[in-house]
Amino acid sequence: MEQTSLDLLTRIADALERLAPPPPASLDLTRADAFVWHPSPAHLAPVHKISRVDIDLLRGVDRQKSILAENTLRFSRGLPANNAMLWGARGMGKSSLVKATHAVANQQKPGSLVLIEIHREDIRTLPDLLNLLRPETRRCLILCDDLSFEKEDADYKALKSVLDGGIEGRPDNVLFYATSNRRHLMPRDMIENERATAINPNESVEEKVSLSDRFGLWLGFHNCDQATFLAMVEGYSADVGLPIGLEDLRAEAIEWSVTRGARSGRVAWQFIQEMAGRLGVGSERPR
Q1: What are the φ and ψ backbone dihedral angles of 180, each rounded to 5 degrees?
Q2: Residues with Cβ < 8 Å from 225, sequence gap 6 or more?
């Protein structure tokens, strides 16, 4: 009888062990220079080839390039630096600039900086990611692309506490960059709703607006004019090697922007893709 019970318990224990999730893999930030954060199960997936544009190909954002590059390089060298918010017009190179400055930092000091992407829907797990990175020696730049918050969304509180650092403080080896189409991360109706329902409306609204204030750097990106758009097109064309005359290239680019109803770095690259296809040229995204 005792042996039967022991066998039964052994089978139950074996079954539970098979159902249990595997232990998390040990963190090794030397596997790559970039990772994507996955919170469930918690791990960093290495990215061995980053989709990025060379910093010299980003046109019309010279001031933003200079400021962000200086901030990123200081951080990669072990010096104090600020969290940064890149906000403004779509397609003007906000996330591309972050990835480009990461590349510049590692060119100047190889292996100095890890880029970690966290998706917007996982922002509530940002404190878990920071706790994972806290004991690491490599310096880590966390990027959240297209960050914003909607009604009934309390995730901003997790971000706010991380930017403030809480009682532990933000890890010295971690910096946070975010991109957004909004100057403030909450829509106006969300702020107005908080004003209407709060016991002290001014304090509630201040909490919402102050989230953006916790970024030391604010860099604005604005719609470009035609001259800047054509400079983007010409830079991409030269890099890809399109066999087309300058005047024809410009005329085609202007027509393309008119039909799209927009001018931006993204529209310029889409135009280059179109022309490369027409002209039978390979157009792997420039690095």
Answers
A1: -160, 150
A2: 263
